[in-house]
């Protein structure tokens, strides 16, 4: 995908408009590039000024404790904006970002993007809505990690990912990476997945999980 197509995708997805004037402005503040697998875009604690839009690929956002252990915060998928916290607080990056495959990105200066957003109240409301969804996601994630066992965490994740029009959920990342997000090991994750399949709840084919009946 070329830069013009990527900018249009961002404009329609985030701003809800493909107005030629908006596209022209965004084209001047966006940098389009392709990044190799396992590239670090920014590091936890690093001062930053760039907001990102993932055109294609998948990215892991994680934090690392003093012992070097990773805690996965979120998997960014195609069509998502991330590091948008800089638009509101102008702080350091709170997480580290690593590409899980070759990724197609738009990079934007946070201050310039904020200027574009501030000129349109509707766009500002879209940003607030996006941040509210992100907060709700983290609240649910914290609740799941502190209250539920691994089976319940996986079931909740599958329920949240399932779309009404399809019974198939595609894992956005390898099983080992998803296990980190759910606060468990790859081995335990695989055992729980196998158990759900043996009980007739799901059917697993590679990264595709078909839900056969209501999960409980």
From TrEMBL:
InterPro entries: cNMP-bd_dom, cNMP-bd_dom_sf, Env_Response_Regulators, HTH_CRP, RmlC-like_jellyroll, WH-like_DNA-bd_sf, WH_DNA-bd_sf. It comes from the Bacteria. Residues 148-215 form the HTH crp-type domain. One of its GO terms (molecular function) is DNA-binding transcription factor activity. Residues 14-134 form the Cyclic nucleotide-binding domain. GO terms for cellular component: cytosol. Keywords: DNA-binding, Transcription, Transcription regulation. SMART domains: cNMP (SM00100), HTH_CRP (SM00419). This is CRP/FNR family transcriptional regulator. It comes from Seleniivibrio woodruffii.
